[in-house]
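4.2 Preliminary Data

To establish feasibility before requesting continued support, the project team ran the inverse folding procedure on a target of 223 residues. The structure was first converted into the token representation described in Section 3, and no sequence information of any kind was made available to the design step. The complete token record follows.
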């Protein structure tokens, strides 16, 4: 069997994108039962557990899209960074993915919350870097030499911003439900859940459009 490495990268990129988009839809639908105050607390927490189990695939897809996209970009000659850079990115991604999965494994504990916060902090560095390089390239034509590639990176960076906000909301679910378990089903706690759910729902619509735009730019290379 003769498999073209570029085709294998493209396949992995598609799979990561599918998990990203499909996972976010699954979490969105599950969140309705998390917010349903007519359900017993244990039932709502079971739905939250389901949401986390779905979301870990979406989170993994988001992370893997970065090295896959940079690797494919290197093969296409759309950026100047060489093999050493690509290898470093893959090693850093493996460490980041390990952190993400560790946060998932310990999600109901203080340790899991701390690991999640460290996962979020990586994005504080990554997002400005992606937006800065992509935005500069769109304006000046370099270092990313293809405008469609720069535009795709820019939209991907914007989606990481929205994803970070949604990560905040899911992390707050854990802490709020822990408070409810201790203090009871207080209106103030339910109000916090309701407000964050409403904000997350609005963000989710923009998120899906952005994910679709990212895929469109990569598939069509319109400019």
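Position-by-position output of the design step:
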């Amino acid at each position: 069997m003769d498999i073209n490495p570029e085709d294998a990268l493209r396949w992995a990129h598609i799979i990561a994108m599918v998990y990203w988009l499909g996972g976010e839809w699954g979490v969105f639908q599950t969140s309705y039962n998390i917010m349903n105050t007519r359900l017993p607390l244990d039932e709502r927490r079971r739905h939250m557990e389901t949401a986390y189990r779905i979301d870990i695939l979406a989170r993994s897809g988001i992370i893997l899209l970065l090295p896959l996209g940079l690797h494919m970009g290197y093969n296409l000659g759309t950026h100047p960074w060489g093999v050493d850079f690509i290898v470093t990115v893959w090693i850093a991604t493996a460490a980041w993915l390990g952190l993400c999965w560790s946060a998932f494994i310990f999600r109901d504990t203080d340790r899991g919350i701390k690991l999640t916060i460290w996962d979020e902090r990586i994005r504080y560095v990554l997002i400005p870097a992606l937006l800065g390089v992509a935005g500069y390239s769109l304006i000046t034509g370099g270092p990313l030499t293809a405008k469609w590639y720069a535009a795709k990176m820019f939209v991907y960076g914007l989606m990481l911003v929205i994803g970070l906000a949604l990560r905040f909301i899911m992390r707050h679910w854990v802490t709020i439900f822990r408070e409810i378990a201790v203090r009871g089903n207080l209106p103030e706690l339910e109000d916090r859940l309701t407000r964050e759910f409403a904000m997350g729902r609005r963000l989710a619509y923009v998120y899906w459009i952005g994910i679709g735009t990212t895929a469109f730019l990569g598939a069509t290379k319109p400019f």
